[in-house]
Structures
1.
Amino acid sequence: MRILYDIFFLLFSIFYLPYFLIKRKYHRDFLQRFGIFGKDTFSSIAATRPVWLHAVSVGEMKTAETLIKDMRRMLPAKRFVISNVTKTGHDIAVRLAGGEDIVIYFPIDLSFVVRGLVRAVNPSLFIAIETEIWPNLLTELYNRNIPAVLMNGRISPRSFRNYRLIKPVMRGILAKVRLFCMRTEADAERIRRLGAAAGSIKVTGNMKFDSVLIRDEGGEARAPVEERGKWLPEPSRLIVAGSTHRGEDAKILESYRALKKDFSDLRLLIAPRHIERVGEIEALAGRLGFKPVRISEVEKRCASAKSNPADYGDSPVFILDSMGRLKSFYKLATIVFMGGSLIPHGGQNFIEPAAYAKPVITGSYVHNFKDMSELFAKSGAIEIVKDKNGLVSSLRKLLSSEERCKEMGERAKKVVFDNIGSTERNISLIREYL
């Protein structure tokens, strides 16, 4: 079976490399995806038996942030090897890593590649964030008696149906995982039905709630752009469309245009999920009659004290053109629309704006966050719309009632803080491995 699996990945790699070259995704450390590392990459860390934490991309890295910080406080001498697949996730990991930690790209799951990597890293524990099931890696860890833990585990109904087609294979793979920390009872039941031992499964909640804990920021210097009066007229209301995907921006812009007729104080900020789409959104906003303004330009003007709300006109469309700044704008928002949900993408995580007591609207394509959206909807803490018309209607109702906005935002915040604590529960379960 492993031979067939290796053949599959070798064939996959043949097509994988040209694709990345064509898409210009090649970068300095790209060869790590094929198991090629510098000979001294792990020489200083292997003897310390680090924790190897794997988080695919941005969302998983944000989920892992609190976990790493709490583990580091508990065991300050412990070092980490953090692996990612995407460049954006890798960049976050680099910022999060301590001076003696190592950040790498996760290689293709070929037996001879992962065998060498596990030997080189020599971890005391492997933690995969969310549903990361790599047969060859798990086999190698198991053979070397290194505990593997699946944390913040999720098995969607669709994934469950697919995995069931290879249930005999899945049973053997899952037997090599020491502990499954699953988000919900439904996730736990699905992983059990796929063959995981019941005694290895724990329901610990969703770590994404912990990743947005709002700490006292009073001592932190505020960025000039966070001072509304420098670029947003007072009074004004701001809609933040967060993590949008191609196919949604036109609907959001057209909704904004429809609402501007009745709410002249309204402003819009679009934050694309992929930063390379900024120019595309600029062009679209211009074609629809708006004045596109990049936040980087606003920041420059604010920093030089040359910014005046009047400079941006009556109908500007602000576009966030840098990573890691969206949180600041959620704090300034009147209403948040969460992207990836008006198209069949599956939605994006809306816990962060909810934690700031912001009313959140999302489209109906939220299958990647099904349990979360149902939890919020049940509490009246989110509005789910089917299309552009529904978005306009929902925004209009909220803009027309300050009380409705506040009430919905407070419900959202309560849901977040009622569900905090998963990270602590997970750490308590892995203490014996640390």
Note: Residues 22-206+420-433 form a domain with the Rossmann fold fold (CATH 3.40.50.11720).
2.
Amino acid sequence: MIQVEMLKSKIHRVKVTGANLDYIGSITVDKDLLDASGILPGERVYIVDNNNGERFDTYTIAGEPGSGIVCLNGAAARRVQPGDIIIIMSYATMTIEEARTFQPSVIFPDTDTNKLIK
């Protein structure tokens, strides 16, 4: 059976609020954003920095709900600057038949506050 990797969830254009080099690693994201996008704590995510073109992967840690936090930790902190606009994406593997009808979850937070736009 052939399987393909498809976009599962996307947080489109959020502002980096911090970069913490002295941390184990990962990206801390406001839990409200994770929940709305369907990205789980601990899930592998791909990061695209719109300001400098960096592309890398890490895993998520849930931050305080409603805080707007988007903080790159550990080595990933060297890839961004606070204030950069990033896209956070996760992917899922599925059969071609599943992929034909699958709809990813994509959210568009306010880029000034990183809060959900309702």
Note: Strands lie at 3-15, 18-20, 26-30, 44-49, 55-63, 70-73, 85-95, 105-107.
